[in-house]
Amino acid sequence: MNASQRKKFNAIVILVILSIYLLIVVFPYFWTIIASIKEPSAINHPLDFNFTPTLENWKAVIQAGIPRQALNSLIVGLVTVSICLVAGAPAAYAFSRYKVGGNKSRFLVLLSQMLPPATLIIPLFLLMYQVRINNSLIRVVISHLTVLLPLVTWFLIGFFDEVPRELEDAALVDGCTNWQTLLKIVIPVVRPGLGAAALFAFVLSWNDMFYALILTSVKARTLPVGIAGYWTFRGVEMGQMSAAILLAIVPMIILSFFVQRFMLRGMARGAVKG
Predict the structure, then answer these.
(1) Confidence band (pLDDT; 50, 70, 90) for 46?
(2) Is 92 buried (19+), middle (13-18) or exposed (0-12) by CB count in 10 A?
(3) Torsion-angle region of residue 232: left (phi > 0), alpha (psi -120 to 50) or beta?
(4) Contact in structure between 255 and 203 (CB atoms under 8 Å)
(5) Which of 14, 60, 124, 171 is the most exposed place for a label (fewest CB within 10 A)?
(6) How far apart are CA 247 and CA 30, in angstroms?
(7) Overall CATH class of domain 64-268
């Protein structure tokens, strides 16, 4: 086998491996789409594609309140991300520029991510009970902040570290205060990092079920809790669950492309615009 044949053989092997990997990744999504338009009796035969499509699963999901739960998830995600950026960006800037607390404080921010969520659920529940925050989306927002605010802060520190100090020194010489320098000079420079952090935090908030399941009632349910509700004592309502899953993952697939784009822009430019 000469060099040209060996090169073609290697290309074919790589193509076959990638095709198998792509099939493994895509097949669950394909099967979910098929299951969402099948009758319940036909779902028991997953490889049988000779069936009459139906929209009954989609109608049942919409009538069951999934759109309301999706709206709850959207509200929780937007409020959580907004608070994370408003509080996390100045905190990350302080860690980056003023070395607040030294390296130990940075480690403490990272250490908060090492705690399992279950360790916080009882203190959070008791605290919210004492302050009379009952059965509302505020509970979910507060619980998400305990996880996402340190994560966003840690994420943004690296972007602020890449901003040249000369930009801030020039702004201070021109008469800007520290806050004006942060808002008018630094924040526009790290905008790709802010976008990546915001979208990453939103995805985590959107997909969370643990806190929402324990801390909310029926009216304040989020989308992941609603999807889990199709696992009943009668069994799994696979068709309706598949339709609800598709409603949940389509926005996340779209947002994932924005996350990738923002992260690549931030890394490629060193978080500094020309």
Answers:
(1) low
(2) buried
(3) beta
(4) yes
(5) 14
(6) 14
(7) mainly alpha
Contacts of 252 (CB under 8 A, 6+ apart): 203, 206, 207
Task: Enumerate the domain spans of the chain.
Answer: 3-36, 64-268
The Cα–Cα gap between 273 and 251 comes to 29
| pLDDT tens figures, 200-248 | 899 889 988 888 888 887 778 888 988 888 887 777 788 888 889 988 8
Could you report how far apart the first and last alpha carbons of the chain are, in Å?
A: 51
φ, ψ of residue 269 in degrees (nearest 5) = -95, 0
* Rounded distance between C-alpha atoms, residue 124 and residue 130, angstroms: 10
Structure tokens at 9: 């053989």
Residue type, 64: A
Residue at token pair 């789409």: 33
Helix (H, G, I), strand (E, B) or coil at 46: coil
| Residue in 152, 128, 112, 135 with CA at minimum distance from that of residue 212 | 135
Which value, in Å, is the radius of gyration of the alpha carbons in the chain? 24
| 45 backbone φψ class: left, alpha, beta (φ>0; ψ -120 to 50) | beta
Tokens at residue 81, please? Answer: 């991300």
Which band of pLDDT confidence, cut at 50, 70 and 90, is reported for residue 268? very low
Token readout for 121 is: 């659920």
Predicted TM-score of the model (pTM): 0.80
One-letter identity of residue 220: A
Q: How far apart are CA 129 and CA 35, in angstroms?
A: 41
Strand partners, 232: 235
Q: Which amino acid is at 114?
A: M
pLDDT at 77: 92
What does the alpha-carbon distance between residue 191 and residue 261 come to, in Å, rounded to a whole number? 12
